[in-house]
Amino acid sequence: MSVPAPGAMRLHLKKFRKYVAPALVATLLLWGASTVCRVDLGALLAGMPRGVALFGHMLPPRWEDFPALAGPALETVQIASVGTVLGAVLALLIALAAAGNLSPHRAVRELARGALTAERALPDLIIILFFVAIVGLGAFPGVMALAVCSVGMLGKLFADAFEEVDPKPLEAMAAVGATRAQIIRYAVLPQVFPSLIANTLYRFDVNIRMSIFLGVVGAGGIGFNLVMSMRLLRYQEAFAAILVILVLVVMCEQLSDALRRRVLGQEVLR
Amino acid sequence: MLTVKGLAKRLPDGKPLLRDISFQVEKGEFVAVFGESGVGKTVLLRCVNGLTAPDSGEVVINGDGGPQRVNGKTGKELRRLRRRIGMIFQGANLVKRLSVLENVMTGRLGWINPSRSLLYGFTDQEAERALEALEKVGVKHLAFRRAETLSGGEMQRVAIARALLQEPYLLLADEPVASLDPKNASAVLDCLKPLTAQMAIIGVFHHLDIVRKYCTRAIGIRDGVVAYDGKPDVPRDVLNAVYGSEPRAWPVAAGQ
Amino acid sequence: MNGTISLGTGRRKAEQRHRRYYERYLWTGGLLVFLFGWNAAELGLSARLFIEGLPHFLALVAEMFPPNWQVLTGGRVWWGILETLSMAFMGTFLGAAVSFVLGILAAGNAAPSRAVREAVRTLMAAERAVPTLVIILLLVVVVGLGPFAGMLAIAIGSVGMLGKLFAEAIENADPKPLESLESAGATGMQVIRYGVLPQVMPSFIANTLYRFDINLRAALFLGVVGGGGVGFDLHMAMSLFRYADALAITAVVLVMILLAEKLSDYLRRKIIGQEVLQ
Asked: Which of C49, C234, C258 sits opposite A125 (nearest CB)?
């Protein structure tokens, strides 16, 4: 009973290292970050009535705007779907080069993997701004930007799926005298098909949200209507746009969810 | 039909696996290759259709285009040779998510126009031939099932049908019945046996009674050379010589 | 067995089935290609546009080089970087704190009542459906332009996903230790504190760090719509045709993102790794 002091000391020290020190660092970081962000509870409280008033201004939404919003809403969906398909096709080609078991050469594989990693590191905002700068305003830069943004993630997922394929049927096809392209078509694609579709649909969900944002930088779609109405303080118009956006997002997610379940569900059932 | 001369192959670590294998096979023969596991029987079969490249020696196929060397060929030439050499793997190696019929039709891939096979698929004539082949091996009723729903014996018979669509003059079978129960095994072998009318069959088998009942000839391999080449009724002393003193991998022989 | 006639009809039927099988694929494929082409045409896409854009692309790339590093000396960009990092950090922290509470309230085995659980679940699902763009546009009206609005938008935007993942983790927790605590007479809060949290904390922290990676990229976007940070500087440089400036800023942003991802990866591995070791 007279000796435990050093042990207790060590325990305290350990506790300090494990809990107190990280807590101190975290507090310091939070204090710094909140200063930089100009966190101001007063402003938030003062803004509350403004927020309530905002909702008051928004109601009722301008119902007569809905027909006019159908066009931009459709454009948003079109940008997202065409961009996703283009990106998926591009990703498929790059993934064929990036998958270790299908790639024609090691160097090709490393190059393709490197390109995919680089694209994933590049923030989507930079890609979007870049395309808007090249092509100017309109749907075209939006589609191109979404396609390029999708390539990194889809390409990696596709390549991983290719690498996990059961290699035995590939060998059987080679023994039959099939070309590389035939092997991919008849032994590889059937195996990875559900995962390709499911991942592409997942990316479509992401791209729908991105394509709403695209309107802000002038790349077409309903986001533009929302931002313009807000800037012009036409809150009833803005609320109509918000409602359309919400319906759009939910509907697209339901649709892709249903399709995904159909493609993957077949898998489970049979 | 097939001539193997002085075939040698080293393992990746440099140890010699096959040292000097020579034999000749003619149409109508059903040859069993036997030997201890790890002696290189599978590698030998894979050298015959070029899935594995031998270090030295030669494999010559005398098919429709006169005698042709398999080893050393690549690309289109190798594919042209392979399309008439059927191969049946231990696990059948079907594409599990395709239908049985499509699996069988892939046996035509070496024959048909590649761009058509990529863009469209197979024709009705090919489907009909596939159905005929399936009928021959007795599993036509499974044609529209997914391959992954089949039992091991059924898969193996589908693999035979796939090989039949290649119109092969040589059929290689790498332990086709090793993972099947006796009843399914004999069903598969009953499918193989009559095919010798049109082709030569080389198979790796582990059961002496199978070799005796179905094969016309047996080749034993030990230490990388042909240790026995003769009648399927392999004498006991040869067995002991090929398998060493303890015939572990020869379970049925012990009972006879 | 059944005679040649029935065998023949059987084969014909099988052939028809084969043809139908192919036709189904051709129809679906054709329909998809048609839809794609039609949508692309509606959007005014064409190969011509693409080819015409190519010289623009090269000209723009040429204008970007060499990057104008001068833009980094003023401190403006660095302050923007700091704002973006702070927005992402504070937003993630606040969002995680709120999700922590909501997650517990939404988990079937920890929620005080069914009604509370359903209400919280619905709230989180609704939040997930709202794009961040809508959130930030409304917040800008409430608290004005600047990083504070951006931070709040990130916090709110994180709650739906983090809360859902946390609730799911709690529901998947091993129930046996909870039962033994209950049988020892622990209160509901005590069961959560000593039975549930130790099991789910690693996944909660890992998800939060993962969300930080997402939020850092989202913080760049928020700059464009008035949330402050380096995203604004980048947008400005691009819209004022200062492409050399934009490239310099892009380089700094890339380094920031890579470093932040390395850090969160390291922390995630350290926290989960500890867990595996114990």
From this structure: C234
Interface probe, candidates A59, A125, A237, A255, chain C, greatest C C-beta count within 10 A: A125
Do the Cβ atoms of C153 and C139 come closer than 8 Å?
A: yes
Q: Is the pTM for the entire model greater than 0.95?
A: no
Here the ipTM equals 0.84
**Domain count of chain A?**
2
Q: Which residues of B touch A177 (CB under 8 A)?
A: 78-83, 109-111, 166
Q: What is the pLDDT of residues B196-224, one digit of tens each?
A: 888 999 999 888 888 888 999 999 888 88
Residue A1 has pLDDT above 80, yes or no: no
Residues of C in contact with B143 (CB under 8 A): 14
The domain of A152 spans 62-269
A149 in contact with chain C, both atoms CB, cutoff 8 A? no
A268 shares contact with chain B (CB less than 8 Å): no
Q: Are A153 and A120 in contact (CB under 8 A)?
A: yes
Residues with Cβ within 8 Å of C231's Cβ and at least 6 positions away in sequence, in order, are: A125, C80, C84, C219, C220, C221, C222, C223, C224
Contact yes or no for C21 and B124 at CB 8 A: no
Q: Please tell me whether residue A225 adopts helix, strand or coil conformation.
A: helix
C6 pLDDT band, cuts 50/70/90, is very low
| Residue A8 and residue A68 share a domain | no
Radius of gyration of chain A (CA): 26
Say if residue A74 is in the same domain as residue A200: yes
Taking contacts as CB-CB distances below 8 angstroms, the residues of chain C near A27 are none
CB contact (8 A) between residue A173 and residue B81: no
Whether chain B has a CB inside 8 Å of the CB on C63: the answer is no
CATH fold of C69-277, please? MetI-like fold (1.10.3720)
CA distances from C174 to B251, C177, C189 (A): 48, 7, 17
Category of A228 on φ-ψ map: left (φ > 0), alpha (ψ -120 to 50) or beta: alpha
Q: Say how far residue A111 (Cα) sits from the centre of its chain.
A: 24
Q: How many Cα atoms occupy the beta-carbon half-sphere of C24 within 13 Å?
A: 6
Whether C94 contacts C212, CB under 8 Å = no
Q: CB within 8 A of C40, min separation 6: which ones?
A: A82, A143
**Other Cβ atoms closer than 10 A to C208:** 24
Work out the angle at residue B45's Cα, subtended by the Cα atoms of residues B44 and B51, and round it to the nearest 5 degrees.
Answer: 100
User: Which CATH number covers residue B242?
Assistant: 3.40.50.300
Q: What would the two tokens of residue A247 be?
A: 């319906």
A54 part of a folded domain: no
CA distance, residue A65 to nearest chain C CA (Å) = 18
B167 and B175 Cβ atoms separated by less than 8 Å:
no
**Contact state of B121 with C25 under an 8 Å Cβ cutoff:** yes
- When CB atoms are compared, the residue of A176, A179, A191 closest to B166 is A176
Q: Which of residues 238-257 of C touch A (CB under 8 A)?
A: 238, 241, 243, 246, 250, 253-254, 257
Pairwise CA distance, residues C233 & B219, whole Å: 78
- Residues shown for chain B: 256
Name the nearest CA neighbour of A236 among A51, A60, A64.
A60
